[in-house]
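Hey L., structure's done. Input below.
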Amino acid sequence: MRREFPNQDVYETPIYFSSDWLNEYWDAIAVDDYRFVYMGPSGSWTPFHADVFRSYSWSANICGRKKWLLFPPGEEEHLRDCKGHLPYDVTTAALQNYCPPPLEVIQEAGEIIFVPSGWHHQVYNLEDTISINHNWVNGCNVSIMWSFLQAELSAVQREIGEWKETMDDWEHHCQIILKSCTGIDYKEFYNFLKIIAEHRIQALQDGPEDNNLQGPNVMAPGPRHVLFDLRKIADTLILLTDNKDFQKLDTETLNPRPEDLLRTLERVIERGDCRA
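Output:
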């Protein structure tokens, strides 16, 4: 909606959810985003899943009612079959003795629900329902996103491990499969961190009154928030550059180079700490 009607603020993201690196990044590269309007008739439902990149999500009911079945992280492990697959429907009779009962929430019209990272869930429309939903990542859960990507790459490597010695550029093919499965690979994850870092550095230079992060769906963070974000980016960047799979990739095309970006972040954070 925002791209089709850029001058119409159809809705505002609640301030509690507006520190949103994920959609900030996809807006910056103008490819896609993770904002959705869901419409479903009474009786329709969403199968058991956890959200993309193990992001947070929020869902606001415009009209209608929903029933949410929510499982804290780790509870889904009780539901895997002998091949490690998760079920499509957790309400089937065959599964009832294998896990504790889920947290059940009835969401009314006008209510918003927040789903933390890694909480698997299954959702039912109890009436004809329209909702606005965002997936989002920020400094509080970017480490979970990074852990998720590592786990997904490991799964890909196990799946095609038998061709490691015979396939040209096996690591590159693993990254291609990773991106096809999750929507992002290690290089794009670096670019994601880089774009958010550049925005935060610019925000520090502009000051809270003039920074360009303000808008109906993006908050204008204050200096302490900006420094928090930069520290989290630096922490994650250290983990990324120390990762053996990332080190095997051709990073010559990355601009700036990861080590240069990290040095810049360290300088900016040090200056910011001195001013705080």
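The longest helix spans residues 186-206. Residues 31 and 261 are 24 Å apart (CA to CA).

-- N.
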